[in-house]
Amino acid sequence: MRLYIPFLILVSVLAITSCDLFNKETGPLTGSWTWQRTTGGFIGETIDADSVEYTQKLVINDESEAFLYRNDELTVAYDIRFEKPEWLGHKTWIFYPRGEAAIIPFFIPENADLGNGELILFPSCDDCYTLYFRRK
Fold first, then answer.
1. Rounded to whole angstroms, how far apart are CA atoms 108 and 86?
2. 10-residue stretch averages of pLDDT, the chain, 136 residues long
3. Taking a C-beta distance cutoff of 8 angstroms, is the pair 126, 36 a contact?
4. Distances in Å between the alpha carbon of 79 and those of 12, 39, 66, 70, 133?
5. Which of 52, 81, 101, 106 would give a disulfide with 95, using CB separation of 3.0 to 4.6 Å?
6. For residue 92, how many other CB atoms are within 10 A of its CB?
């Protein structure tokens, strides 16, 4: 019986530390991102940053939080989780909005190349808008 207790403790510690639920790593996402354009909707609209009278930026910290600002005013706060949701089918970063029932989550595509300085946030619905950002 004494041999089982240390073994169970070791297995429990390994299970907890490897669980994605506790993953706070935003690594290559951390920093400030400037909005470039938005595309999508059911009509395939494109809105460029140069064609509007406002600015947007996305700030991601190392606590798995993201904050979207329009003209330096906070519009949406997100919790970021690295997981594999059933509706997506692969592991990636999911941006879950805080407290806003009408705002859908965004995700980063599986084949994203974050090293090129571009961040693309895809919506979790077919006819919603995709957001494009460039590292500041």
1. 15
2. 44 39 66 96 92 96 96 95 84 88 80 85 89 93
3. no
4. 26, 23, 6, 18, 18
5. 106
6. 18
Joined tokens for residue 114: 């974050």
User: Which pLDDT does position 88 carry in this prediction?
Assistant: 80
Looking at the whole model, is its pTM more than 0.70?
Answer: yes
Q: What Å distances lie between residue 114 and 2, 22, 136, CA to CA? A: 49, 22, 13
Kindly report the three-state secondary structure assignment for every residue of the chain.
CCCHHHHHHHHHHHHHHHCHHHCCCCHHHCEEEEEEEEEECCCCEEEEHHHCCCCEEEEECCCCEEEEEECCEEEEEEEEEEECCCCCCCCEEEEEECCCCCCCCEECCCCCCHHHCEEEEEECCCCCEEEEEEEC
* Residue 118 · residue 136 · CB < 8 Å: no
Neighbouring residues of 108: CB distance < 8 A, sequence distance ≥ 6: 29, 92, 93, 114, 119, 120, 121, 122
